[in-house]
Each structure stands twice: as C-alpha cells, then as structure tokens.
C-alpha cells in the first residue's frame, strides 16, 4: 500500500501543496517552521481524521480560509487505486472514499493505515495509559477483525450504564447493562490478548536490531483486577461507581506497560533510548500487520535526528528499509540523512513551497 498522490489545500501553513511521492522512501528536507511536519500531519489526518500533534481540527485550517481540503490517491495491496479525501470546515468534517460522501471513519482508517514516529513518541512510555491503549488498539483493529464490532458493542453499553450512574438511577437500572458489558469486554480482551501474543513474537527481533540490548516485556492489564473476573469486578465496584458517577473498571481502563530488564522502560532508559524503544514498538506493529494481513502501512517519521545519535539513526533506517513499505522522513538538512539510505525521492520544503530534488 502506498500513496501515489497527495494534494493539500489550506492546511496549516500550506495554501496549496501537491506531491507525487515514491512508493518507497521519501525524504523531506527543510528548516524548522518550513512546513515539513505539517505535510506529514496532513497525510496522517488522511488516515486517522485527527492530528498527531493533538491540535483541534479547526485550528488546522489555514488563517483566512474557510476550510481545508486533503485529497490523495492510494494504491492498495492488490494494486487497486483508491481516492480518499477530507474536508474540514469549522465544526464539521466530511470524509470521502472513491466518490462516496460522508463515509464512516472506519472505512477511511481501513483504506489508509498510517503510523507516525515523531519527537514526542516517548509519551507512549512516560505518560498515562490513554497513549498506550491507542497504540495497542490501532494494531488490534487492523489485525483482529472481531475487535471493532466488540469494541462498538462495549462502548454502547458503557455509555448507557454511565448515563444511569450519572442520573442516580436505581441499582436495577444500572446493572441491567452489566451482562452486555461483560460479553463485549470478553471479546475485546480476547482480541487484545491474541494481538499481543503475536506482537511479542515480532518484538524481540525489532528491539534487538534497533536498541541492541535488554529484554522487552509487555505487561497487559485488562482494566479490572487480575484476581477476579470482569462481572465480579463490576459487582464489587457498584457502590463506588454510583458515588463517582461512572464505571471504574473495564477495557476502557486497560493499560500496556513496557518493561526492560525487569524495570519499567520509563525508569530504565534515557530520553533518547525511550524514543528508540518506542520506535521499535511502532515498527514491530508495522511488521506484524504485513505478516498477518499482507498490508504495509504508510510510515511517517518526523525529525529522526532529534536526540538520536548516528548509530541509532542508522539502525532505525535499516529497520525501515527491511519493512519495504512507503515511508516519509523529515530532516533539517541532507547531512543528517544516514549513509547507505539507498534509493529514495527527495523533497525540499521552504516557505510553504515544496520542490522535488535530484
């Protein structure tokens, strides 16, 4: 899978930008604030309908414009071209896929699997479980086909139960949703565990190649106490749930903790090593998606040189090359590109303009 064309209008600093990238490596060279990260952000938005920089969509509209438009042509794994597009006006996002308007987000995410490695990826290890759940569930969604229907059932029942809790309804009106929660949670949890089992077989090779040391262990916490089943956890927390006004336990509170050499990764490694380890986690996901589904996601690598020495940069580049998918990488200067990168397309970005280099 790869992008054959990307067309950007009125997105951040870009009034208009079109690129026809290579199906392999694409290097984007430019100084800070030149627009190269925003170009990656636009591609990410095409595949996720949100920003990886945690910017609200309305703030992505170029100043003075009424909306931004993103369009692309994707070549699928079976060589079939797909046209995708997003229009964002204040308060309204419209998704398009092959001429169909207002398609579900699920269809867009399936059409363009995209993963990003940016200077803030250490948040996956340092910050709260929300980042790790998002990492986990992106992979589960693309690999385990039963995950999304189960997750949708779970979220629907959770909203109903939380609504009853917030309104202070009698216990009977709360626990009526417990059976559906338990059944859906069982399926969600099974999909997550199956995916992690597969990921743990891919991860050692990727970590060893990039980080070069330390056994990495993934500790999965399902979102309720490990010494009881989910139904019992709901029952035991009912009174607390009623006081708090929301459900305390469930897959929505799950976490994935990463340990290196018997210590949590956030305490064991430096900031630079955290970034390398997180890059290995993300690239392992890409490798697993290829092995299990024959899909190579589009990789977006922003400022690979940030806090990474030449040895680590070269190791990450070797791993990316072995994945054999499409990748966009940004650098401040061509001199920062690791030697031996191989055949690639190069784009130079300056003052909101892009030109293809030699």
List keywords for this structure.
358 residues, alpha/beta, Glutathione S-transferase Yfyf (Class Pi), Chain A, domain 2, six-stranded antiparallel beta sheet, six-stranded mixed beta sheet, 15 strands, globular
Question: Please, could you describe this protein's structure?
Answer:
With 358 residues, this protein is α/β, with parallel strands linked by helices. It has a domain at 124-271: Glutathione S-transferase Yfyf (Class Pi), Chain A, domain 2. It has twelve helices and 15 strands. Strands 2-1-4-5-6-7 form a six-stranded antiparallel β-sheet, with helices on one face. The longest helix has 33 residues, at 178-210. The model has no long low-confidence stretch (mean pLDDT 91).
Shape, principal axes of CA atoms: globular
CATH topology grouping of the domain at 124-271: Glutathione S-transferase Yfyf (Class Pi), Chain A, domain 2
Q: Give the N-to-C terminal Cα separation.
A: 24 Å
| Helix proportion | 40-55%
Q: Under the CATH scheme, which architecture of the domain at 124-271 would be assigned? A: Up-down Bundle
How would you name the oligomeric state of the polypeptide chains in this document?
A: single chain
Strand order in the sheet with the most strands: 2-1-4-5-6-7
Binned strand content: 15-25%
Structural class: alpha/beta
CATH class placement of the domain at 124-271: Mainly Alpha
Q: What is the count of DSSP helices, taking H or I runs of 4+ residues?
A: 12
CATH superfamily of the domain at 124-271: RecF/RecN/SMC, N-terminal domain
Order of helices and strands: EEEHEEEEHEHHHHHEHHEEHHEHEEE
Biggest β-sheet, characterized?
Answer: 6 strands, antiparallel
Radius of gyration: 22 Å
Stretches where pLDDT is under 50 for at least 5 consecutive residues are none
Q: Average pLDDT, to the nearest integer?
A: 91
Total strand segments:
15
